[in-house]
Design goal:
Distance between the termini: 97 Å
Pfam family, one: 2-oxoacid_dh
Strand order of the largest sheet: 9-18-17-16-12-15
GO biological process, one term: tricarboxylic acid cycle
Radius of gyration: 41 Å
CATH superfamily of the largest domain: Chloramphenicol acetyltransferase-like domain
Structural class: alpha+beta
Number of domains: 3
Number of strands: 18
Organism: Modicella reniformis
CATH topology of the largest domain: Chloramphenicol Acetyltransferase
CATH architecture of the largest domain: 2-Layer Sandwich
EC number: 2.3.1.61
Strand content: 15-25%
Number of helices: 13
Cofactor: (R)-lipoate
Length: 450
């Protein structure tokens, strides 16, 4: 309607021009006619331009354009080029807000959450659960825009209401069951009940034994696909055994003084620093103390070269439902007991919640594994390549020990060091364990650095 009204001035100016163009050129050969035609043409063009501008200007601000945005698989780490799509948290048609988690990808080390970089509605998913996706590949498409008007909640309510109406229908046939029992009562009233009873007694035990046997001794098998973390762990452990010349040496530690130190100061530490004082921090600091005297245990092999590290990044083994992870306490030689305990508590909580990052696992020059928390008395840990050694802690048990010619009961722990014999000799491995033993049995050595 608006376009018709505003185009009338253009039509009025165009009619004389059309009349002139239809007339024979011989009737309008004078210069004045040519001037008039030129003027009418200019006026008609100007009027058309003004009319089109007025028609388009008011509506430009009211037109809303929606753009599509394709989200790709993000960069996860330098050593990770692909992952397994674990599960979609959203489906096609769902609205996602800015920085909302849409999908999680399982990698060789951790699970990576992919958040939406923009707000919009999901219009396409380019992968399914358990698919392998590469870094940089298309993951899902968004139609950018604000959240739509809420229409889904009422559908959910109606879906929940329908099963409630079906419940009373299921109760009705239950009333018919006692009616069927009545004719059964008439059957035992026949004249031959005695002959039927022994037959039933002989058959009943046979049926009970047959039905109970498969329940008690099931032979079912289940096939579960290994997750990427477990596949990586198994591959690296086998690679470690095939690469390193592994050898394990043992020693035992009297934990009396360290346990007394913990008992005397654990409450004060918890009150001041809000962290529990455990044994792991003492073993980390004692390891750093011993590694200063035996640097080969803190080294690694690269090709034909030996790389000696002047710092100590301790990888602490933490058990998770998916497998064993080793977050790294960096520059542990420069940290205090309290700082080490805070780092262990932080990594332990992140590992249990599945929030540990890839950066937390990278690096490491020496590993400590505490199998004693599960009750292990003695074991031979496997080297975490490319490192050259790993320390194994075990359970604390009271045992009779000879002290100054007398037998005393002391809390003892076996410790084990598995090392790569290509770079570490037996003398160095034993020296490391002796230094560690001395520092644990007399923690004052760590304070005096002797």
């Amino acid at each position: 309607m608006i376009s018709a009204v505003r185009s009338k001035p253009v039509a009025r100016l165009a009619r004389p021009l059309a009349a002139l163009s239809c007339t024979s050129t011989s009737l309008f050969s004078s210069p004045a006619v040519h001037v008039a035609r030129r003027q009418l043409t200019i006026n008609a063009a100007a009027a058309a331009a003004v009319a089109s501008h007025r028609l388009s200007t008011p509506y430009r601000s009211q037109v809303r354009y929606y753009a599509d945005y394709v989200v790709k698989v993000p960069h996860m780490a330098d050593s990770i080029s692909e992952g397994t799509l674990k599960e979609w948290n959203k489906k096609v048609g769902d609205f996602v807000a800015l920085d909302e988690e849409v999908v999680s990808i399982e990698t060789d080390k951790v699970d990576v959450a992919v958040n939406s970089p923009k707000a919009g509605t999901i219009v396409a998913l380019y992968a399914k659960a358990d698919d392998t996706v590469s870094v940089g590949a298309d993951l899902f498409k968004l139609e950018l825009g604000d959240a739509p008007a809420g229409g889904a909640p009422p559908k959910e309510k109606s879906a929940k209401e329908t099963p409630k109406k079906e419940e009373p229908k299921k109760e009705e046939p239950k009333k018919e069951e006692p009616k069927k029992e009545e004719p059964k009562k008439q059957e035992p009233q026949k004249t031959e009940p005695k002959k039927a009873e022994p037959k039933k007694e002989t058959s009943s035990p046979a049926t009970t034994t047959d039905t109970s046997a498969p329940v008690a001794f099931s032979r079912e098998e289940r096939t579960v696909k290994m997750n990427r973390m477990r596949q990586t762990i198994s591959r690296r452990l086998k690679q470690s055994q095939d690469t390193a010349a592994s050898l394990t040496t043992f020693n035992e530690v009297d934990m009396s003084n360290l346990m007394k130190l913990r008992t005397d100061y654990k409450d004060a530490v918890l009150k001041k620093h809000s962290v529990k004082l455990g044994f792991m921090s003492a073993f980390v600091k004692a390891s750093c103390h011993a590694l200063k005297d035996v640097p080969a245990v803190n080294a690694r092999i690269e090709g034909d070269n030996i790389i000696y590290n002047d710092y100590v990044d301790v990888s602490v083994a933490v058990a998770t439902p998916k497998g064993l992870v080793t977050p790294v306490i960096r520059n542990a030689e420069s940290l205090s007991f309290i700082d080490v305990e805070k780092s262990i508590a932080k990594y332990g909580a992140k590992a249990r919640d599945g929030q540990i990052a890839i950066e937390d696992l990278s690096g490491g020059t020496f590993t400590i594994s505490n199998g004693g928390v599960f009750g292990s008395m003695m074991g031979t840990p496997i080297i975490n390549i490319p490192q050259s050694a790993i320390l194994g802690m075990h359970a604390i048990k009271e045992r009779p020990i000879a002290i100054n010619g007398k037998v005393e009961i002391r809390p003892m722990m076996y410790i084990a060091l598995t090392y790569d014999h290509r770079i570490i000799d037996g003398r160095e491995a034993v020296t490391f364990l002796v230094k560690l033993k001395e520092a644990i049995e007399d923690p004052v050595r760590l304070l005096l650095d002797v």
